[in-house]
């Protein structure tokens, strides 16, 4: 199969808008389908297990997520950027990326086995965390493959793989938890889902990229050098996002963790949707950043404005409907999640801006600033959690997130202004000249279709 050349844009700029819209739609499905199905499975688990066992599952999940960053290293944005700018190098870069993931997976699994014992978690939490970590290890390889399809703007392939993951994980997990009431067996379902998604991506990957190409230690050193700020940023980001659950589990009973985990599901969904919007334009933004920095400034400003304009009314609606939403989704046993969700709903605009700012700064090769910013925010978040959680439990964790996420947003927007000269002007979104300039910035960059098509032809 070969790729058709992208149609050239007309005066209206729709040539840039249509592919970006297709990317966004495909990415939305890639994130929404699996999360929707696994969210339904989580609701089934919450109702079946009860607040205490569901809290134990939340503890295992948070611990596995924190350790999973050792396996994934935040590599996917770097790979998307490099594949987008240099698709002809994909075979050798993919091989080196797999080398790194093999080593990081081994470190992650070894660290998890040691730490869950040292921290004294129950046998069920230990078993669930290990199974979830194995799923993340398989998914780490899938991320490498998904990065290629994102970079070459074939997001629909990742959509298909993600849908397969969600379908297998959701259905198997739902059946297992209903029939066995075991949180450990429920945690085994993602392994099957990740394996199915990885198999699908491998089947659709061009032969030269799937087989890889000879790579040297020099290639490995260059990748690791570029990866360092991404890895630091995403390690800190993951710890920052899940530290509250681990601290809550330390001081409060599992039922309190269950209440927080239920409310936090809406934060997870928002983070995923914000990632959809940013990732849809990220390959083009990366190519524009390589060609001319001003394009990243212009596109980044409009994207941040749009993110805030969408997130604010959504957050307000969720805050208004928090009680019926929690009751409908999780049942009367989770009434205590309502005040937690009231605080977390106010987090959503800041969270959305932070996700988009991360991608904009990554495209502009400014990840060192992101690493510094997240490191400072993590320290603040830790202090707030240590202050609030012992006294206020789940509400204290939500309050700590509210304050630190808005502090991070202020820092991210200030960094974008300092590094890229971005000034937010929401009214510019409605200006035809501004929209036309945005479309031009997303069309710029080298035409990489011949390099991508060459890889496809080699597979024929």
- Global morphology: globular
Number of strands: 0
- Low confidence ranges: 1-14, 444-453
Largest sheet: none
C-alpha-based Rg, rounded: 22 Å
Number of helical elements: 17
Q: How far is it from the N-terminal to the C-terminal residue, by CA?
A: 7 Å
Helix-strand blueprint:
Elements: H1 14-72, H2 75-85, H3 90-118, H4 123-151, H5 155-180, H6 183-186, H7 189-204, H8 207-211, H9 217-251, H10 254-291, H11 293-320, H12 322-330, H13 337-345, H14 348-363, H15 367-420, H16 432-443, H17 449-459
Describe this entry's structure for a reader.
The protein is an all-alpha fold and 460 residues long. The chain has helices at residues 14-72, 75-85, 90-118, 123-151, 155-180, 183-186, 189-204, 207-211, 217-251, 254-291, 293-320, 322-330, 337-345, 348-363, 367-420, 432-443, 449-459. Helix 9 crosses helix 15 and helix 13 crosses helix 15 (367-420). Residues 1-14 and 444-453 have low confidence and may be disordered.
Condensed summary:
By secondary structure, the chain is an all-alpha fold. It has helices at 14-72, 75-85, 90-118, 123-151, 155-180, 183-186, 189-204, 207-211, 217-251, 254-291, 293-320, 322-330, 337-345, 348-363, 367-420, 432-443, 449-459. Helix 1 (14-72) crosses helix 16 (432-443) and helix 4 (123-151) packs antiparallel against helix 5 (155-180).
Supply the key terms.
mainly alpha, 460 residues, globular, disordered N terminus
């Amino acid at each position: 199969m070969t790729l058709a050349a992208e149609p050239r844009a007309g005066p209206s700029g729709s040539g840039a808008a249509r592919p970006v819209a297709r990317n966004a739609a495909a990415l939305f499905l890639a994130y929404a389908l699996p999360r929707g199905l696994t969210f339904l499975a989580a609701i089934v688990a919450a109702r079946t297990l009860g607040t205490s066992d569901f809290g134990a599952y939340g503890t295992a999940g948070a611990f596995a997520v924190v350790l999973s960053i050792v396996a994934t290293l935040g590599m996917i944005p770097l790979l998307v950027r490099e594949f987008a700018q240099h698709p002809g190098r994909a075979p050798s870069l993919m091989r080196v990326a797999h080398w790194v993931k093999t080593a990081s997976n081994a470190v992650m699994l070894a660290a998890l086995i040691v730490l869950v014992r040292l921290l004294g978690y129950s046998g069920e939490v230990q078993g669930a965390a290990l199974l979830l970590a194995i799923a993340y290890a398989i998914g780490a390889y899938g991320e490498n493959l998904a990065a290629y399809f994102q970079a070459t703007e074939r997001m629909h392939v990742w959509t298909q793989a993600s849908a397969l993951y969600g379908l297998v994980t959701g259905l198997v997990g739902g059946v297992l938890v209903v029939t066995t009431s075991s949180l450990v067996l429920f945690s085994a379902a993602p392994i099957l889902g990740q394996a199915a998604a990885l198999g699908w991506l491998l089947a659709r990957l061009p032969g030269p990229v799937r087989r890889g190409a000879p790579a040297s230690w020099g290639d490995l050193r260059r990748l690791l050098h570029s990866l360092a700020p991404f890895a630091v940023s995403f390690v800190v980001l993951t710890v920052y996002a899940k530290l509250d659950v681990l601290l809550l589990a330390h001081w409060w009973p599992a039922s309190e963790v269950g209440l927080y985990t239920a409310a936090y599901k809406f934060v997870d969904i928002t983070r995923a949707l914000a990632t959809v919007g940013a990732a849809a334009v990220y390959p083009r933004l990366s190519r524009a950043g390589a060609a001319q920095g001003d394009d990243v400034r212009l596109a980044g400003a409009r994207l941040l404005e749009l993110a805030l304009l969408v997130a604010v009314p959504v957050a307000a609606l969720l805050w208004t409907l928090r009680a019926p939403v929690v009751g409908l989704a999780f049942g009367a046993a989770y009434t205590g999640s309502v005040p937690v969700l009231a605080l977390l709903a106010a987090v959503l605009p800041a969270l959305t801006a932070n996700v988009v700012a991360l991608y904009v700064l990554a495209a502009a090769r400014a990840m060192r600033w992101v690493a510094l910013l997240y490191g400072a925010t993590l320290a603040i978040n830790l202090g707030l959690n240590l202050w609030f959680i012992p006294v206020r439990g789940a509400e204290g964790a939500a309050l700590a997130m509210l304050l630190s996420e808005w502090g991070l947003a202020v820092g991210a927007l200030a960094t974008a202004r300092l590094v890229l000269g971005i000034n937010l002007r929401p009214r510019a979104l409605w200006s035809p000249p501004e929209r036309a300039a945005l479309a031009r910035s997303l069309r710029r960059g080298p035409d990489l279709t011949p390099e991508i098509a060459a890889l496809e032809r080699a597979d024929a």
